[in-house]
Amino acid sequence: MKSVTLKDVAKAAGVSYATVSRALSGSPQIGSETRERIIKLCDEMGYTTNYVARSMVMKKTDLIGLVVPSIENQFMSELAYYAEMSARAHGYNIMLCNSGPDLKQEKTVVKLLLGRQVDGILIVPQSSRSYENIRAYTDQVPTVFLGENLRDQPQSYVTVDNSRGTYIGTKYLYDLGHRDILYFGRRHSTTHQLRAEGYMRACQEFGLQQRFFNSDFSRSSINNGYQMAKDLFSRPIDYSAIFASTDSNALGILKAADEMHIDIPDRLSLIGFDNIPSTGLPRIDLTTIEQPKRDMAVQAVDMLRDKIENGTQGYVHQILLPSLIKRGTCRALD
Amino acid sequence: MKSVTLKDVAKAAGVSYATVSRALSGSPQIGSETRERIIKLCDEMGYTTNYVARSMVMKKTDLIGLVVPSIENQFMSELAYYAEMSARAHGYNIMLCNSGPDLKQEKTVVKLLLGRQVDGILIVPQSSRSYENIRAYTDQVPTVFLGENLRDQPQSYVTVDNSRGTYIGTKYLYDLGHRDILYFGRRHSTTHQLRAEGYMRACQEFGLQQRFFNSDFSRSSINNGYQMAKDLFSRPIDYSAIFASTDSNALGILKAADEMHIDIPDRLSLIGFDNIPSTGLPRIDLTTIEQPKRDMAVQAVDMLRDKIENGTQGYVHQILLPSLIKRGTCRALD
DNA sequence: ATTAGAACTGTAAACGTTTGCGACCTTTTG
DNA sequence: CAAAAGGTCGCAAACGTTTACAGTTCTAAT
Fold first, then answer.
1. B 245-274 → A contacts, CB under 8 A
2. How does pLDDT run across A24-45, given as a tens digit for each residue?
3. What are the beta bridge partners of residue A183?
4. CA neighbours within 13 Å on the CB side: how many for A85?
5. Higher confidence at residue B320 or residue B29?
6. Do A96 and B95 touch (CB under 8 A)?
7. Displacement of CA B208 from its chain's centroid (Å)
8. Angle between the A222-233 and A247-259 helix axes, to the nearest 10 degrees?
9. Average pLDDT score over residue span A156-165
10. What positions of strand D are covered by protein, i.e. any atom < 7 Å from a CB?
11. According to a count of CB atoms within 10 Å of the terminal CB, is the N or C end of chain B lower?
12. According to the model, what pLDDT value does residue A33 have?
C-alpha cells in the first residue's frame, strides 16, 4: 500500500530527487544516459507520480468538475460520455457530481468542487435560474454552461438553437399538410421559452393558429407527459399533430395515446425534441429534433480548456444547429 | 482567482493558522469564543479548505475512482448515479473514467486513477478478463468490482445471481405453457455463462430441450442483436419463446421481428435481462429480469468504504437477488 | 505568594512534488 | 595554459494543510 516516491527512486539511482523529477518531465538539462537509467528504474520500481503533490506546487489539478442534474438521464449521460473522453484526451480528469432536483444541492456541489481545486467547471444547469444560483462561484473558476440557453447572461455556454429546432419541426409538419398543430410543454426555462418561440414564429409565417397545452410540471419526464396527455386526450382532439417540447414528454404522450387508442401517426402526428437514444428504439421510432450532443460536449470542453489554459476572459455563446430526424411518428395528410 | 488560505484568515484574526485549522476542524482544544470568531471570519472571507493540500498531509483524498466501459450505457449510468449519490453522502467524490471497449484503456485509466491517489476504485469491468487485466493494481488500492461475476477470484464484487435470473425467467415461460424456448446470446463472459447455466438448469428441471443461438459479437447492443435476429428469423421458427441474454439484445430482436412481421408476443414471447429503463417504455413494454441497480451500487460503495476506512483485508462476494418484471412481451400459450 | 495544573495557542515538521539558482565538472577558446 | 562557456546536477524553497509538541497564560489550590 505504501507507494514509491521520487525520493525512493532517487536513492536507488544515487541522484537527488530533483534530478529524477527533471528526467521524468523531459527537462533538457539532464544527460541522456542519466535520464534513460532513471526512467528505466522508475519503471522497475513501479513509480507513478503523485498528482496531488504535483497539483500542490503547480497550482493546477488538471481536474474538471462536471455537474449534471442526474447522470442517469440519457441526454446527460451522453454529454458526460463525450465530455469525459474529450477531457481525458487533453489530460484532464472528470469529477462527477449529480446536482439532483434542487438548486441548493447544485450550489453545494459547486462549492465542493471549488474546494477540490478543480481547474474548471462544466455544468448542465437545472434551469435558467442556475446562473443566478451559482454566480458567486463562477468568477472564482472558469465555468461553462452546457445545454441550457442563458440568453445574454455574461457567461459562456454552449447549446443548440432551440428556436430553430422547433421552427424546422413545425415547418416539417406544415409541409406534410398539417394545419392544426398543438404545442405541448412548459415554457418556464429559457430553453423552453425559445422552443415555444420557434413554434410561434413558424405559425406566424405559415398562417397557423398558435395552440398551446402547457404542462405545469417543473421537470419533463415520461410520467409527467403521460399524466398531462391523459388530461389532454380527455378533451376533443381538434388538431392533427403535436409538437412535444421534449422527447420525454413525447414518450408520455405516446403512452397515453396508445392507452386511449389514438393512433400515432395515423390519427395524430407526433414530434419530439432532443433525440435521446430511446427515440430510435423499435416501435417507438419517434420523429424528433436532434441536439448534437457530441459536438456540444467537445465544444464545451474546448471552451473550458481555452479559459483554463489561455486565461481567456470574455464569454462566448456557442449555438449549435439542431437537425430534423425523420422517423415514423409523423404522417403526411391527405 | 486567488483563493484565500488559512494564513490569510489567521492574519485577519490575529492568530496562528494552526488555530484556524483547529477551529474549523472542531478540535476541543480551542476556546469557544475564538472558534466562533474564526468561523465567522472564514465565512466572511469566503474561505474554503483546499482539499488537495489537506489530502497531501492526510494521505487520503476522499476520492473514489469509478470506471465504467461507457457512461452512456443506461445500465451503467444508473449504477453511476446511485454510486455517486451514496459516495457523496459519505464524504467521497467520484472521479469518472470511461474505459471504452478495449482492455488497454481500462488498464490505463486505472493506472491514472492510482496516480490521482484515489482512496478506492469501483469498477464495472468490461469482461471477466478485467480481473486479470488490472490485477497488478488491485493490491495497491481497495477495489470492488461491480456488475460482473468474478466467480471465486480473490476479489470483492457485487453482482446479481445471474443464474437465478434466467432460471426464474425460463420458469415463468414454462409456467406460461412454453415448451420450446430459445436462448439468445453469447456465453463468453462469466456473467453470460451463468445466465446460460440458469437457463440450462431450468430446462433440465422441466424437461425442456436446450436450444441456443449464440451471438458472436463481443458487445451486446441493439444493433448486434438486430443483425443476429435477422439471421435467426431467416430460418424456420420452431420455438415459441426467446430468452435474450440482455435487454439490448431483446430490443434488437424486437426490431427484427417487427420488420419481418413476426408478432411479439402473439407469435413469439420475448424476455430480456437487466431491466434497463428503455424496457419500460410504451410500445416496448419488455418483460425482463431486474438487476437491483440501486442496491448494487450502494452496497458496492459500502464495501469499498469498509475497505478504505477499516482496512478490511478479505474479499466478499455479494450476490443480490434478481426479480421478474412481468410486462407485455410474454403470452400464455393456449 | 507560590505553584500545579488546566486551558489555550503558537512553532515547526511533514506530505511529494516542481523549479530557480548556484555549484561543479568538462570542454573549448584565446 | 588560463579562463570562459556549456553541460549536468544538487540545494532549498514553495504549495496549503494537519498535528505533535512546546510554550504561554490563567485559575485555583496550597
1. 251, 254-255, 258
2. 988 888 888 888 999 999 999 9
3. A212, A243
4. 21
5. B320
6. yes
7. 33
8. 50
9. 98
10. 7-12, 14-20
11. C
12. 84
